């Protein structure tokens, strides 16, 4: 394994010299996140303009070699629990395992083996007696949550201290097309989000940033507030909102047009969301 100290600005998928498993120091979780990258082909069904994946292309995850994934996950968790990786590679104060996160270089639920991957995580967690406090996360754009197999995977995740982080960067079809480069109806987003909430504790994950020097408009804020308020009125309550700005440079063509927002701008929007009765975690 490479001996470079990890930091919050580097989420190198190859930092452990493994195919699927990689460690990151997460600024949002405050510890080591054990990432699982199912999209080793850098393929995703969305193309968010702030995406840090090199050579991103449209598509789905390739076939997953479950035996290699299981060997890598078991071996790396053993190293974190009993080896010197934490001491040598992780900054002081962040030397704890916070979660196992299905994230990586594309949409993880596009993997045909998604349910088997969750079962694999459960098996390894049990064998290593991983503390219950260690979460199992799915970071997703939510677009495939209509699939029965994905919903089953989420129900299984819920038994593993699971959380879904469901991308909602804008709450209008025009906004999603502009930021996520996807044509998708807001009703479909709502249906998929309701399915996620029903299966597993779910947070909304929202990236808020300036485009061409301009922050999101008041209309963008109003659309978001209205979408979430309607969800709550109908009894579908997420755990809260993870509101953050840019920490690492985009590798998409739009990169020169993007910039992070000041903390006070994020906090002002967070205050509006909080008035709906939801928890909001802000990461500038």
Q: How are the secondary structure elements laid out?
A:
Layout: E1 21-26, E2 31-37, E3 43-44, E4 57-58, H1 66-82, H2 85-89, E5 97-103, H3 114-127, E6 135-140, H4 148-158, E7 162-167, H5 173-180, H6 186-199, E8 202-207, E9 210-211, H7 218-233, E10 240-244, E11 258-259, H8 263-274, E12 279-283
Parallel strand pairs: 2-5, 3-4, 5-6, 6-7, 7-8, 8-10, 10-12
Antiparallel strand pairs: 1-2, 9-11
Task: Summarize the structure in short.
By secondary structure, the protein is of the alpha/beta class. It has helices spanning 66-82, 85-89, 114-127, 148-158, 173-180, 186-199, 218-233, 263-274, and strands spanning 21-26, 31-37, 43-44, 57-58, 97-103, 135-140, 162-167, 202-207, 210-211, 240-244, 258-259, 279-283.
What does this structure look like?
The chain has 284 residues and is an alpha/beta fold. It has one domain (21-283): TIM Barrel (Alpha-Beta Barrel), CATH 3.20.20. Helix content is 34%, strand content 20%. The chain has 8 helices and 12 strands. The chain has an 8-stranded mixed beta sheet, covered by helices on one side. It has a two-stranded parallel sheet with strand order 3-4. A two-stranded antiparallel ribbon has the order 9-11. Helix 1 runs parallel beside helix 3 and helix 3 packs parallel to helix 4. The chain is globular, with a radius of gyration of 18 Å. Mean pLDDT is 92; it is low at 6-13.
């Amino acid at each position: 394994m490479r001996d470079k100290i990890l930091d919050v600005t580097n989420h190198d998928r190859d930092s452990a010299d493994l195919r699927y498993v990689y460690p990151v120091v997460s600024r949002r979780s405050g510890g080591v996140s054990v990432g699982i990258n199912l999209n080793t082909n850098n393929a995703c069904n969305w193309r968010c303009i702030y995406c840090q994946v090199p050579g991103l292309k449209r598509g789905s995850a390739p076939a997953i070699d479950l035996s290699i994934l299981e060997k890598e996950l078991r071996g790396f968790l053993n190293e974190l629990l009993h080896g010197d990786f934490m001491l040598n590679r992780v900054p002081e104060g962040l030397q704890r395992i916070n979660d196992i996160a299905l994230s990586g270089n594309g949409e993880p639920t596009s993997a045909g083996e998604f349910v088997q991957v969750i079962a694999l995580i459960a098996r390894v967690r049990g064998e290593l007696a991983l503390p219950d406090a260690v979460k199992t996360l799915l970071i997703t754009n939510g677009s495939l949550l209509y699939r029965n197999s994905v919903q089953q995977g989420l129900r299984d995740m819920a038994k593993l201290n699971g959380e879904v982080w469901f991308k909602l960067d804008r709450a209008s079809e025009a906004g999603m097309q502009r930021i996520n480069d996807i044509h998708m109806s807001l009703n479909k987003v709502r249906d998929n989000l309701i399915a996620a909430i029903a299966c597993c504790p779910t947070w909304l994950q929202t990236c808020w940033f300036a485009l061409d020097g301009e922050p999101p408009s008041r209309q963008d804020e109003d659309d978001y507030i209205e979408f979430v308020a309607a969800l709550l009125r109908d009894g579908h309550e997420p755990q809260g909102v993870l509101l953050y700005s840019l920490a690492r440079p985009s590798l998409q063509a739009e990169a020169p047009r993007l910039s992070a927002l000041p903390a006070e701008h994020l906090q002002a929007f967070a205050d509006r969301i909080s008035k709906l009765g939801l928890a909001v975690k802000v990461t500038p």
